Automatic annotation (TrEMBL), chain A:
The chain crosses the membrane at residues 266-291, 355-382, 394-418. Keywords: Cell membrane, Membrane, Protein transport, Signal, Transmembrane, Transmembrane helix, Transport. This is MotA/TolQ/ExbB proton channel domain-containing protein. One of its GO terms (cellular component) is plasma membrane. GO terms for biological process: protein import. Belongs to the exbB/tolQ family. It comes from Kushneria marisflavi. Residues 1-22 form the signal peptide. It comes from the Bacteria.
From TrEMBL, chain B:
Its main location: membrane. This is Flagellar motor protein MotA. The keyword Transport applies. InterPro entries: ExbB/TolQ_transport, MotA_ExbB_proton_chnl. Belongs to the exbB/tolQ family. GO terms for biological process: protein import. It comes from Kushneria marisflavi. Transmembrane segments: none annotated. Keywords: Cell membrane, Cell projection, Cilium, Flagellum, Membrane, Protein transport, Transmembrane, Transmembrane helix, Transport. Residues 62-165 form the MotA/TolQ/ExbB proton channel domain. It is found in: Cell membrane; Membrane. One of its GO terms (cellular component) is plasma membrane.
Length: 459, 178
């Protein structure tokens, strides 16, 4: 039972396109519908036949109706003739009036055209102007054939003088403004003549017809603080965009520092990472050198107590363990050996820093070249017609060069600092050790002489 | 008067951008260090050398190994003091062309930014970036050339002083012994 019903409903939905809900509620079978349609057609035929029958029978009535209709038509004809006559008279009157107007007001016609033109122009330019903010200055409306009355002229002159007065005014207004997020709120707006308007610290983008005011896409920070100061009456400088929003738009499109770095791509990131590693190594080594040099200096003031936490103390301590009465050349060789052993610790990290400082500009060059390859690919695809298409790739190529140099310069500084520091320490060590050695040789010499003298006197 | 002096400099700094100012600072540091070295060499170093020679003459003997080692030691101390800031001078000289390159590249970035905003129609809009690209390079090169002249000359002076010192010490003792 349910299946044929469902099938019928489907057929009606597809074929007869009845509303689906109605088909589901009543769901009459297809045969019923056909039957009722046939019944209706038979009834209509029956009705027509009976009407024809009565008409044919009542012929007199028919003729009367025709006569009535003809009388109505004659009456209408007569009325039309009289109206035509009126129209012709009126047209003649218009022609004569126009002729009179032309002959009398021939000089005025260009002036009216001019006025109409001016009014239209003013209306168009007011549509995108700050001057009408918060006031409704109405201009007289003139159509093509109307004659401007002295009132119209007066009104136009008045509204123009109002506009001129407003162009020299700055005023606080409260108007609905669309923010960056698109929400429209009532905000305090400062209008400065016909040049600019701002709300809080944000410049507003130029008004556009009837749409509510909107905040400009990007207001530079320095301009923003200037505007705030000006609005509160503390500042007397302000920024203008004389290009009607073009510069503001360009500023909004200018990439920030982070976006610039992002433009450098993988190579830019690698360069920065290398630079960070190099700087960390340099800082660590610099701190270590500072520690070592303070310890060495402390050791220089206390030679009686040799500590092994600094290179000078270590060298002298090991030297003190040497046997006495060596030849000077042997002692010198031993000392050089010990100093050489201390050198790597002081010069640690310098090679890495130097290599990174040398690599960073090369990485920049690599980024430049890959960026140029991208640019030339863009030329191959889009042609050289649109320089904007290439400009993106080129500035991308240049960013890596800047990153390379920016990384290399501090590392060069760090390298020089490390180098001079470690060389100073090494020189200090060498001098102190040599001085110590010379003292010891003197001592040894005098000791030897004393020994010989003692032996000589004893013998 | 001051206005007339400062105004062209301010205009130049404005046209060349921040990199030009950095190069100017580097140049100031470089030439101050150079001047300081020259003054040191002319005054302090000569006095110290004289003191060293008299100290050496006062020593009771001049021929033993320890005496020679001590002499080397003293000479080394004096010469390395004379040489002290030379690595920094060399670094600053090497830095100048690099800074010029930075200026060039940032200027070029600015040129291409302008290009992407205004299109090629406005060559005048690009001139700002071109000035920022070329002026730092010029300035960097100029400073580097003068700096190189100085450092190489000073290096030569240090080497000559080193030999001179040894000569004078030897002669001083020879006269003594003779």
């Amino acid at each position: 039972m349910t299946r044929p019903l469902a099938g019928a409903a489907l057929a009606m939905m597809v074929g007869v396109s009845l509303p689906a809900s109605a088909a589901e509620q009543s769901a009459p079978s297809l045969e019923d519908i056909v039957q009722s349609y046939q019944q209706g057609a038979a009834q209509a035929q029956q009705r027509d036949l009976s009407r024809l029958d009565t008409l044919l029978k009542d012929r007199g009535q028919l003729e009367q109706a025709v006569a009535e209709a003809e009388a109505r038509q004659q009456k209408a004809q007569a009325r039309r003739d009289s109206l035509d006559g009126t129209r012709q008279r009126q047209e003649e009157a218009i022609a004569s009036i126009n002729e009179r107007r032309n002959s009398e007001g021939d000089d005025l016609q260009p002036m009216f055209d001019r006025l109409r033109h001016e009014i239209d122009d003013t209306r168009d330019s007011l549509k995108n102007s700050w001057l009408t903010l918060g006031s409704d200055i109405s201009l007289p409306s003139l159509d093509d054939s109307s004659i401007a009355s002295s009132d119209d002229l007066e009104q136009y002159a008045q509204s123009m003088s109002q506009l001129i007065a407003r162009s020299a005014q700055g005023e606080h207004l409260t108007l609905p403004v669309a923010g960056q997020d698109g929400n429209i709120t009532q905000r305090d707006v400062v209008r400065l003549g016909g040049m600019s308007a701002f709300s809080g610290g944000d410049l507003l983008s130029a008004p556009n017809g009837d749409r509510p005011l909107a905040v400009a896409a990007h207001t530079p920070d320095s301009v923003s603080s200037e505007l705030k100061a000006l609005a509160s009456g503390q500042g007397d400088t302000m920024a203008l965009d004389p290009t009607d929003g073009e510069v503001l738009e360009a500023l909004a499109q200018q990439p920030s520092l982070l976006e610039r770095i992002k433009q450098g791509g993988v190579i830019g990131y690698i360069t920065l990472a290398l630079g960070a590693v190099g700087l960390l190594i340099a800082l660590a080594q610099f701190a270590w050198l500072a520690l070592v040099s303070t310890r060495t200096r402390r050791q220089m003031h206390h030679f009686e107590e040799l500590r092994s936490d600094n290179p000078l103390g270590r060298v002298l301590k090991r030297f003190g363990q040497q046997q006495r009465y060596h030849e000077p050349e042997v002692l010198e060789a031993r000392m050089d050996e010990m100093l050489l052993a201390e050198q790597p610790g002081l010069e640690r990290g310098q090679a890495v820093v130097k290599v990174i400082a040398a690599i960073a500009p090369l990485m920049g060059l690599l980024g430049t070249v890959t960026g140029m390859i991208g640019t030339f690919q863009a030329i191959t695809v889009f042609g050289s017609g649109d320089p904007k298409m290439m400009a993106g790739g080129i500035s991308q190529a240049l960013v890596t060069t800047v990153l390379g140099l920016v990384v290399a310069i501090p590392l060069l500084f760090a390298n020089t600092a490390l180098n001079s520091r470690s060389r100073n320490l090494m020189n200090l060590l060498e001098r102190q050790a040599s001085a110590h050695l010379a003292d010891r040789m003197d001592e040894q010499q005098s000791g030897l002489e004393a020994d010989t003298r003692r032996h000589g006197s004893a013998s | 008067m001051i206005e007339a002096l400062v105004h062209p400099i301010a205009r130049l700094a404005n046209a060349g951008g921040p990199v030009l100012v950095v190069i100017a600072l580097v140049a100031v540091v470089l030439f101050t260090l150079a001047l300081e070295r020259l003054i040191y060499w002319q005054w302090r170093y000569r006095r110290q050398r004289q003191a060293l020679i008299t100290r050496w003459q006062k020593r009771h003997e001049h021929v033993s190994w320890s005496a020679r080692t001590l002499r080397e030691c003293w000479c080394g101390e004096l010469i390395s003091a004379l040489r002290a800031s030379l690595p920094w001078l060399k670094l600053l000289v090497a830095l100048c062309p690099l800074l010029g390159l930075v200026g060039t590249v940032t200027g070029m970035i600015q040129v291409f930014d302008t290009l992407s905003i205004t299109g090629v129609g406005q060559a005048r809009g690009m001139s700002d970036g071109v000035a920022r690209a070329t002026l730092p390079t010029l300035a960097g090169m100029a400073v580097a050339v003068v700096g190189i002249l100085f450092t190489s000359r000073f290096e030569h002076i240090v080497r000559r002083e080193d030999q001179h010192l040894h000569d004078r010490l030897t002669r001083a003792t020879e006269i003594d012994h003779a």
